[in-house]
Write a structure and sequence with these properties.
- Two copies of one chain form a homodimer.
- Chain A has about 200 residues and is of the alpha+beta class.
- Chain A has two domains: about 150 residues, 60s Ribosomal Protein L30, Chain: A (2-Layer Sandwich), CATH 3.30.1330; about 30 residues, 2-Layer Sandwich (Wheat Germ Agglutinin (Isolectin 2), domain 1), CATH 3.30.60.
- Chain A is built from six helices and nine strands; from the N terminus they run ααβαβββααβββββα.
- In chain A, a hairpin with a 2-residue loop joins strand 8 and strand 9.
């Protein structure tokens, strides 16, 4: 069996090393440890993520809570907070990431603000990427209390993912699952055709 | 270097083999082929997915368009359609998945309706999973024209992902990124505290 470390799998999925990915890696491992849980092959775990930044990719790989399985719930709250629960025993943890400015110097912070502020040149992006590894390693090697807090909590688990029958859009002829079909003047339409039809 | 096939990487990420995952695998490979693109290490590609079902996990692994990188755009339209574009030359393709009832027999279809309709017993889930591999292999080995259509298209690419400064919620004391902070009676709050405060 091929030996690939958890961190290597996370980096391969995300495509590059960065500070946020390392944070998500620490969050996921801390959550699994406290939950005494294995990654979810199906929907055994549910993750509620309060942001959609890099760290969530580490969470997807390590917890098995993925966008495509329906056990990754996104709350667009812009908070570095991840709540992960087990369906079998209802146990859940809330992981709150700490401010990690201690891990970066001013040059890195300034580059990061520039690049992710939308003003970075391709050269700035290269310089930032070249420094991400050293910063990520500080996060990976730091004591957990410098990176995040993990509190046990309770969550109401969402129902398991469902599939629905498909119907055909009377306008574009493409299939759409029933709950997303719209009715316009007796015709069954998909949402984009319905919105075009309404001139939106 | 460890040799793991693309399909093995997709299955490891998703956690199990299923029909939808095989469909997403075919969609992703078809898109990359027509775009003549490599998987996105950063945001070189952008994917607009019109559903959040299993297939999107294959798309995340193979195209590098991931939830955490900001280059996976979700339109909740319930359609088996994926649009993938290149930032460098603006080329884009729209992949529309075909009805694959040809790949399943009535027993499988009935089990799938039952399990994903929310009425399956754990035993039904086991029986369904036991049959997913054979069905997935039919999809993996089918001629592309039986699985999907790939049309070149044009899309307006979203801006690259950004990061923002954080502020501290005056209620819970947790950090929130500026664009998601809310102001209540002069106080800066995160969205969940703001909603509690408003009694929602």
């Amino acid at each position: 069996m091929c030996q690939v470390s958890d961190w290597e799998r996370v980096v391969e999925f995300h495509g590059h090393v960065c500070l946020g990915l390392a944070m998500g890696y620490r969050a996921a491992l801390a959550a699994l440890r406290v939950l005494e849980a294995d990654p979810a092959a199906d929907e055994e775990l549910v993750a509620i993520v309060e942001n959609d930044a890099c760290g969530v990719d580490a969470l997807q790989v390590l917890t098995g809570c993925t966008f495509g399985k329906g056990n990754l719930i996104f709350r667009d709250w812009g908070k570095p907070v991840y709540t992960i629960g087990r369906r079998d025993n209802g146990k859940a943890v809330r992981v709150v990431m700490k401010d990690t400015s201690w891990a970066v110097d001013e040059e890195f912070a300034a580059l990061r603000r520039k690049v992710f502020g939308g003003e970075g040149t391709p050269e700035d992006r290269r310089r930032l990427q070249a420094r991400q590894l050293e910063v990520a390693e500080r996060i990976l090697n730091a004591p957990e209390e410098d990176v995040c807090t993990v509190q046990e909590t309770t969550i109401s688990l969402p129902p398991r993912a469902r599939i629905y029958p498909s119907v055909t859009c009377a306008c574009c002829g493409e299939r759409v699952m029933e709950p997303r079909a719209r009715i316009e003047e007796g015709k069954t339409l998909c949402i984009p055709c319905s919105e075009r039809h309404r001139g939106r």
